[in-house]
Amino acid sequence: MVTYIFRRILQSILVLLVVGLVAFAMFTFIGDPIDNMLGQERTQEDIDRLRGVLGLDQPFVVQYVKFVISAMQGNFGVSYEQGRPVAQILAERAPATLELAAVSALFALSLGVVLGVYTAIHRKGFVANLVLTLSLIGVSLPTFLIGILLIYLFSVQLDWLPSFGRGETVDLGGWTTGFLTSSGMRALILPSITLGLYQMTLIMRLVRSEMMEVMRQDYIRFARARGLSERAITFRHALKNTMVPVITVTGLQLGSLIAFAIITETVFQWPGMGLLFINAIKFVDIPVMAAYLMLISVMFVGINLIVDLLYVSIDPRLRT
Amino acid sequence: MGLLDITDLTVEFPTRRRLFTAVDALNLKVNPGEIHGLVGESGAGKSTVGAAVMGLLDPPGRIAKGNIVFKNQLVDTSDGAVMHALRGRRISMIFQDPLTSLNPLLTIGDQLTETIRANLQVSASDADGRARELLDRVGIPDPDSRLNQYPHQFSGGMRQRVVIALALCSEPDVIIADEPTTALDVAIQAQILDLIRDVVDERKVGVILITHDMGVIANTTDRVTVMYRGKVVETGPTAKILSAPEHAYTQSLIAAVPRPHKKVHRFPRINYDGDDPDFAIEDLARDWPRYDNAPGKPLLSVRDLTKRFIEKRSLLPWGNRYFTAVDQLSFDIMPGEVLGLVGESGSGKSTVARMIAGLYKVDGGRVTFDGDLVSDLSNRKVQRAYRQEIQMIFQDPFSSLNPRMRVDQIVAEPLRHHRLLSGQDIPDRVGELLEQVGLGADARLKYPHEFSGGQRQRIAIARALATQPRFLICDEPTSALDVSIQAQILNILKDLQDHLGLTILFISHALPVVRQMCDRVAVMRRGQIVELADSEQLFTAPKHDYTKELLRLTPRTENMFEKPEA
Predict the structure, then answer these.
(1) CATH number of the domain where residue B476 is located
(2) Do B89 and B201 belong together in one domain?
(3) Looking at residue B285, what is its pLDDT?
(4) Best CA proximity match to B257, nearest among B531, B513, B433
(5) Which residues, at least 6 apart from B32, have a Cβ–Cβ distance to it below 8 Å?
(6) Which residues of A fall within a CB distance of 8 Å from B55?
(7) Position A145 confidence tier, pLDDT thresholds 50, 70, 90
(8) Does B95 touch chain A (CB under 8 A)?
(9) What percent of chain B has pLDDT over 70?
(10) Distance separating alpha carbons of residues A75 and A291, to the nearest angstrom
């Protein structure tokens, strides 16, 4: 077990290093940050001097190695655009994105599992088929359109929920949270539904098909033959066996919730890391982009490590 | 009145095209303390009877007619609450495959206590105590620590004991055992059948034992009912039915069972329904290539063959723990010889076959074929020629044919791969091959799922013959088939060997089959050959203790069949 975790952590570190290298290779193609940083009255001398100061005259591999070395000391550099440490900027923005992702994941997982089990058991029921059809419409529409539709319905027409921003937030020593105020909670509803709808559909369909597969297994027949109640069969025997593939997909999807929050954050003007990243691309703000990408990869890798450990805790056959 | 009386039971499955009657007016009576065998080939409706009694018919199946009377009370099978009260409490079931009938994610203890508490009103600690007793009762040593283990930590036989313990949770009156030993080795089979017998004698339980195996019927049951296509053809005391069967189907079923005690040239086939097409072997032999085999030299020679699998992976490759599946095995196969390889599951038989076929890389030793070293997979030229000359037939014809390919594509694949024929010659040859295995040329455009198990195995044989091989590896070719189909397939293989001079490595766990098929037999245990002798000598005068043990445990059918008992 310890060897397994150790091996996985080693692999994760390797993945992170490769992601960073690819990111740095790409940065050389997206433009020259010097153009944006110096005004109209710049001389070639200024440009060369700034290049030297920022280390942009070196090959990207060297830049990357320097970035990795200072990142390991907790120093992610200074934003070209804002002139402030990148770590500080990300720390301000991260809570908004993480809270949004957490709420959407919770929404997607709880509703996805419940509806998945329901539609699997009542395979031919009217409600189950209605849910399946509606969910199909849900996946077919692009995220931004769903966001705009929700805003139109619940903010413009009904005026029930805010259409943009986080509402009032409370600062808990460096972590600003929207969970503690009613306006903050209300502001979370529409963006998290928008972000989580696709994942919910995916989880629901996955749970449904896995559940139907598991219900055909011999051990379910045997459980029924020895007189267990339908409830015990569904939730104790079937659902647990459904969980292994569901966890895999959920793990991958949770990572993409954070990574692809960009669109939702743009639609809802959500002050999170996604908006920050879009702005950083416009300004060719390499330190911000690099730190953001590394943060996202750390989360992906971390979540998948947790997923692997969850497998082992659910499935005793992997514990050898 | 018996314990369980089934009268006039008719089960129907409405399908889109027609109404399929799976069980047709069946009568069956089970008395306390009696094992009632229900025997028939696959599709006869045996398992449907069990499911109907339990109220567990898969939709759209339904009981169209008939009564089930349990302890003098008519059971209303349509009433879910009544059936739920009966299931597990009064009537229990044991399934075929102990590997799949236990939930892999829950401990044995959890599954036992859950069942005990669902059926009996007892506290958690009482249920725990009862679980311990039950494990002890079914002969599982050290119940205390076993309760906390998961199904995969048990061997096949131990798992089936757990399944029996689960079926005994609430002291049922009737147990329906659906092929309880089919997935088990012969030694384990004997133990499990003894255990069922014990339970019956001790608690006067009535058992319906569903099986396709005449050996099991002969050794275990008191009465037997023979089913054919949903109907009962004969019923009565086991000794009488087996020694003096009245119905033609029962007679042919008994005749088709391979006898362990004498060698016959051909297997008697079940000709009850007359749907056994002829096999045009002579046509095949006409243009079969003849090889000049050096006299006295083996065709295939195996020396010190070794295969290890990683048992526990470590951080560094040299820290891995290995399990030796095949341990320095050596044997020769002469041209035109059939060598049998027998042993329990896990003894390494299939691993040997896969190494010879080049599907596994060898970890030690060498395999030479007609003078060429073929265990070196990197020698492309030798491999290409070798793979054309050997072919393999697998155990399960349901998974060894690609379900998305048409039969003509399946049979043509080796021809195309080895570029033996091109253009119109390919469909011509495919048609001939299918004709020769008795399927007819119309089989070409169908998909595997449209065929029965025996027909699929014929397709697999046609595919294996496509390249005109010299050497066939048959890995349990009939273990998944009914006894009548088994006879057909074995006859085909025997004919191939006679007419084409094929050399065959025949792997099986069924000793009677091996005796009929093979010239010499190697007995494997734990990756090693314990005895290798001429077939007749091995069966009449075994030398090694393990061989003797295997022979002793094979169900003795000969006495049952030929001498009526008192």
Answers:
(1) 3.40.50.300
(2) yes
(3) 66
(4) B513
(5) B3, B173, B204, B205, B206
(6) none
(7) confident
(8) yes
(9) 90
(10) 10
The radius of gyration of chain A's CA atoms, rounded to the nearest angstrom, is 24
Say if residue B90 is in the same domain as residue B227. yes
B95 lies in the same domain as B17: yes
Contact A240 B105 (CB under 8 A): yes
What is the number of structural domains in chain B?
Answer: 2
Candidates B92, B103, B130, B148, partner chain A, best to mutate (most A CBs within 10 A) = B103
Best B89, B96, B105 residue to mutate vs chain A (most A CBs within 10 Å): B105
Instruction: Measure in Å the smallest separation between the Cα of A253 and chain B Cα atoms.
Output: 25
pLDDT of residue B224: 93
Q: What is the pLDDT of residue B564?
A: 40
Domains of chain A in start order, with CATH, are 86-318 (1.10.3720.10)
Q: In terms of domains, do B208 and B305 share one? A: no
Q: Which of B97, B106, B169 sits opposite A226 (nearest CB)?
A: B169
Structure token digits, residue A112: 């996805």
Q: Residue B321, by phi and psi: left (phi above 0), alpha (psi -120 to 50) or beta?
A: beta
Instruction: Kindly list the distances between the CA atom of residue A157 and the CA atoms of A148, A191, A267, A314, B173, in Å, as whole numbers in the listed order.
Output: 12, 17, 17, 46, 67
Whether the CB of B105 is below 8 Å from some CB of chain A: the reply is yes
Name chain A contacts of B107, Cβ cutoff 8 Å: 316
CB contact under 8 A, B115 and A7: no
Beta-carbon separation of A221 and B56 below 8 A:
yes
B421 contacts chain A (CB < 8 A): no
* Chain A nearest-CA residue for B103: A219
Domain that holds residue B49: 4-255
Considering only the beta carbons, identify the residue of A226, A236, A316 that sits closest to B88: A226
* Residue contact A226–B84, C-beta within 8 A: no
Selecting from A219, A229, A236 the residue whose C-beta is nearest the C-beta of B101 gives A219
Task: Report chain B residues whose CB lies below 8 A from the CB of A225.
Answer: 54, 56, 87-88, 92-93, 95
Domain contains B401: yes
Residue type, A288: V
The answer to whether position B515 is within a domain reads: yes
Specify the pLDDT at position B565. Answer: 39
Is B60 a member of any domain? yes
Among the ranges given (A30-34, A132-136, A256-260, B330-334), the one the predictor scored with the smallest mean pLDDT: A30-34
For B313-331, the pLDDT digits (tens) are: 666 667 777 888 888 999 9
Residues B241 and A304: their CA atoms lie apart, in Å, by 62
Confidence of residue B566 (pLDDT cuts 50, 70, 90): very low
CA B55 to each of CA A10, B51, B74, B471: distance values in angstroms, whole numbers, following the listed order: 54, 6, 14, 50
CB-closest option in B105, B118, B152 to A241: B105
Residue B164 token pair: 């029996």
Query: Is B160 within 8 Å of chain A by CB?
Result: no
Residues belonging to chain A with any Cβ–Cβ distance to chain B shorter than 8 Å: 3, 6-7, 217-219, 221-229, 232, 236-237, 240-241, 314-317, 320
What average pLDDT does chain B have?
84
pLDDT at A262 over 60: yes
In this structure, the answer to whether residues B250 and B292 fall within a common structural domain is: no
Query: pLDDT for A13-38, tens place per residue?
Result: 888 888 888 887 777 777 677 776 77
Q: For A315, which residue in chain B has the nearest alpha carbon? A: B105
| Mean pLDDT across B198-202 | 89
Strand, helix or coil for residue B399? coil
| C-alpha count within 13 angstroms, C-beta hemisphere, residue A257 | 32
Is 90 exceeded by the pLDDT of residue B523?
Answer: yes
Asked if residue B414 belongs to a domain, the reply is yes
B227 and B319 in a single domain? The answer is no
- The listed range with the strongest mean pLDDT (A273-287, A299-313, B326-340) is B326-340
Q: What is the pLDDT of residue A72?
A: 79
Do B227 and B368 sit in the same domain of this protein?
no
**What is the band of B242 on the pLDDT scale with cuts at 50, 70, 90?**
confident
Alpha helices in B270-424 (DSSP H): 281-286, 349-356, 380-389, 407-417
Condensed to tens digits (0 to 9), the pLDDT of residues B343-391 reads 887 788 888 999 999 888 899 899 999 888 888 888 888 888 899 899 9
Whether residues A317 and B150 touch (CB distance < 8 A) is answered with yes
Q: Are residues B515 and B452 in the same domain?
A: yes
